[in-house]
Amino acid sequence: MREIPKGKLINPMHRSGLALAGAQTTLEAWGRGEVPASENDGILTAEEVGTLNLAGTWLVTLSACETASGQARAGEGVLGLRRGFIQAGAQNLLMTLWPISDDTTVEIMLDFYDRAFKTGNAPQALADVQREWLVKLRKDKGLLTAVNRAGAFIMSSQGREK
Question: How far apart are CA 133 and CA 107, in angstroms?
């Protein structure tokens, strides 16, 4: 095992990732100052995502909280999961900007998938479904709740339809 360098991780593509099976063991090892082998550590970093071959992948959905976050760098854009999935070749990437409601997200995602697969146009499907949910939630729960629950979703698209 290698030593964890003192201080924070410098590369923002190492600070964004997905926790999979085994991630807890890795986090505990990091807490002890150890770094398990990266090929089976349960953490898929944004940098590792960028090396995947996702050419031809029409849609990737990251509907957990704050999946669009990353570090903005002048001339480079946002470095994080978004960058990794686009580098890997995903055509459409659905993400969130802030913490989201589990219950509302399930309903929004069901409507989104239904519309996206029927039309083959994921960005337009998100725009349409998001607008409908904003109107519905504003009427039922007020503007702030509507924006909080339905406004967090964004689509990064490479401009190709299904």
Answer: 9
Any idea which residue has 């239904």 for tokens? 114
CA separation for the pair 125, 112 (Å, rounded): 6
CA–CA distance, 127 with 16 (Å, rounded to integer) = 26
- Render pLDDT for 25-70 as a digit per residue (tens, 0 to 9): 988 988 898 888 878 889 888 899 999 999 999 999 998 888 888 7
What is the distance between the alpha carbons of residues 32 and 85, in angstroms, rounded to a whole number? 31
Return the closest-CA partner of residue 123 out of 159, 97, 149: 159
**Locus of tokens 């299904």:** 162
φ/ψ of residue 66, rounded to 5: 55, 40
Q: In angstroms, rounded to a whole number, what is the distance separating the alpha carbons of residues 83 and 49?
A: 9
AA letter at 64: A
